[in-house]
Amino acid sequence: MRSLLVALAGRLARLVVTLWLVFTGVFVALAFVPNPHRLRVAYRPRLFEAISRQPRLAARSEPLFAQYVDWIGRVLTLDLGRVGFGERTVVVTDIVAEAATVTLIHLVPAMVIAVVLGTLVQLLAVAVEYGDASAKTKLLGAAAISVPVFLVAYLLQVYLPVLVIDVSGEIADMGYDETAGPFAPKNLRAAVWPSLTMGLYLFAIQLRVAGTDLEQYANEPFVKTARAKGVGLLGICRHVFPHSAARLLTLLSSEMLGVVLVGLYAVEWVTETPGFGTLTIDAAGSRIPGLIFAVVLLPVLVVTAVNALQDAYYEVVDPRVETTPGS
Question: Structure pTM?
Answer without folding.
Answer: 0.83
